[in-house]
Amino acid sequence: QQGELNSFLWTIRRDPPAYLFGTIHVPYTRVWDFIPNNSKAAFHASSSVYFELDLTDPYTISGLASCQMLPHGENLQDVLPRELYRRLKRHLDYIKLMLPHWMTPDQRGKGLYADYLFNAIAGNWERKRPVWVMLMVNSLTETDIRSRGVPVLDLYLAQEAERMKKTTGAVERVEEQCHPLNGLNFSQV
């Protein structure tokens, strides 16, 4: 039963109360039905909502995109072992070939085309740092492709908060997300 589920909602007892809710970066439709009502009620009752990052801010999105790029005009081919690069290229060619078959009729009905979707996810992949390419490749599965166009839980809640005229903000800056991942060395990636 939904009422018996762990909500991952922490309450800070003050007047008015404050809440801390842990989200995950998956399409909200995968988890929304499993979020207990006490978490949804806390969201609705709150006048201000703060997120990890402000995913509704174009500067946040462009900052995330630029932090993923290799420095000094380098290419992935320059930093990966040759055979690994070839395997990656073959895999991405396979994904591009399969993408039209993985897309849903609903996605097509909304004007989403396979080439556009591939470029939105994997465009400029040869210029990205290995850690970001790894994360990108992990999201290029049939299941993930079928849920493209559905906002992740964080973005869905941010959009809902804006629609409900709540005060919104972020607790982290793009650099605080980027630098730790970009600081991983090649063997860690």
Automatic annotation (TrEMBL):
Pfam families: TraB_PrgY_gumN
GO biological process terms, semicolon-separated: negative regulation of Wnt signaling pathway; proteolysis; Wnt signaling pathway
Membrane-protein topology: Single-pass type I membrane protein
A cellular component annotation (GO) from this entry: plasma membrane
Keyword Cell membrane assigned: yes
Function: Metalloprotease that acts as a negative regulator of the Wnt signaling pathway by mediating the cleavage of the N-terminal residues of a subset of Wnt proteins. Following cleavage, Wnt proteins become oxidized and form large disulfide-bond oligomers, leading to their inactivation.
Name of the protein described by the UniProt record: Metalloprotease TIKI
Gene symbol of the encoding locus: Trabd2b_1
